[in-house]
Design goal:
Helix 1 crosses helix 2, helix 2 packs parallel to helix 8 and helix 4 packs across helix 11. The longest helix is centred in the C-terminal third of the chain and has 24 residues. The strands form two sheets. This protein has a six-stranded parallel beta sheet, sandwiched between helices. It is α/β, with parallel strands linked by helices. Helix 8 links the parallel strand 7 and strand 8. It is built from eleven helices and eight strands.
């Protein structure tokens, strides 16, 4: 999980630097600060399990095993990218790893996940689906429609809500009368839990229970994973809506140093081992950038390929 969290953070911060330098173009919604959610949940999944993602989806893709070289190539708009350079940051998918796709439309991954989970149950599989979404998406109709279908049909679906406290620039306290998102599970008579989303072990333990329940026919679970995005909604968002003191408190609760301390305190890893992992991840992401920059541009004649109509 530490390696996954570090891979996500290094990828994101590199993408941020490349964009600020003018080497990458397009919208960029960074996942930095939320790594414990993706790492903790996806540590419980198989390749045959599926996830749907969001506009802030790099972390989910990496945690599920996506290739950072192909991801970076997609950000560069190159032919070797996951969507052949035509999808960009918000539309990465890898069916071989169960990444059904990131989605630029808020809440749009939820009914897709319900459909995938329905197919898994219909086929008699013991695979599960995880729908990642934010607190803003919890107020979309798609959330309630998908929850109702999953509950009524007993689907193997885990609703993983990354509550980073802001829907773009609107605070959760302002856009919801509920004290928690987890309590909404009661309306559909399914289990719901609020979890410290900056604690990778707590996330994993909650996800293990939810995945185990879904895999054995116990139906869906709603997990509210409370976390914080370090950067703005998108790269150039100045975050004027955030209280600087609250931002400072959350940055001090960064999930990666927090997990590092736990590994060291418990004797699970030495500082030398963590340093080696960090060096390996840094080199991996540098190689991903090299691959992306040196990959060919998509040929003009492929513009109308991969279209339904």
């Amino acid at each position: 999980m530490y390696r996954v969290m570090l891979r996500i953070r290094t990828f994101e911060e590199k993408a941020r630097t490349l964009t600020l330098e003018g080497r990458l173009y397009g919208a960029l919604h960074l996942y930095s600060g939320e790594e414990a959610v993706a790492a903790g949940v996806c540590s419980c999944l198989r390749d045959s399990d599926c996830v749907t993602s969001t506009h802030r989806g790099h972390g989910h893709c990496i945690a599920k095993g996506a290739d950072t070289k192909r991801m970076m190539a997609e950000l560069f708009g190159k032919a070797t990218g996951y969507s052949k350079g035509k999808g960009g940051s918000m539309h990465i998918a890898d069916m071989s790893k169960g990444v059904i796709g990131a989605n630029g439309i808020v809440g749009a991954g939820l009914p897709i996940a319900a459909g995938v989970a329905f197919a898994q149950k219909y086929k008699g599989e013991d695979n599960v689906t995880v729908a990642f979404f934010g607190d803003g998406a919890s107020n979309r109709g798609t959330f309630h429609e998908s929850m109702n279908m999953a509950a009524s049909q007993g689907l193997p679906l885990i609703f993983a809500c990354e509550n980073n406290n802001y829907a773009m620039s609107t605070s959760f306290d302002y856009h919801s009368n509920n004290k928690t998102i987890a309590q909404r599970a009661q309306a559909y008579d399914i289990p719901g839990a609020k979890v410290d989303g900056n604690d990778a072990v707590a996330v994993r333990e909650a996800a293990l229970e939810a995945v185990g329940r879904a895999r054995t026919g116990g139906g869906p679970t709603l997990l509210e994973l409370v976390t914080w995005r370090h950067h703005g909604h998108f790269l150039n968002d100045p975050q004027l809506y955030k209280d600087p003191k609250v931002q400072e408190q959350w940055l001090a609760n960064d999930p990666i140093p927090r997990f590092e301390k736990r590994l060291l305190d418990e004797g699970t890893a030495s500082q030398a081992e963590l340093d080696i992992i960090r060096a390996e991840i840094t080199e991996e992401i540098e190689q991903a950038v090299k691959f992306g920059e040196e990959s060919p541009e998509p040929a003009p004649e492929v513009l109308f390929e991969d279209l339904y109509v």
